[in-house]
Write a structure and sequence with these properties.
elongated; 79 residues; 3 helices; two-stranded antiparallel ribbon
Amino acid sequence: MTRILLVVVVVALYALHQDFWFWRTANPLVFGFVPIGLFYHACFSVAASLVMWLLVKYAWPSHLESEVEHQQPEEDPAR
């Protein structure tokens, strides 16, 4: 269930990245000076960071890390 939810969130974030609704206007200004398109992309960047954090936390292939941790360290042939 978690994997399906993460896929849906990534697809939704991808769809929201195509922000064609703010292309032709700079108004309204957010906080009186930030164009709406710039504010949207700032919020999108924060959302993308949160989604990446969720992906690392819940979908990271930890079995690959455990394989590397259990390997014997290789000797450096240059020494």
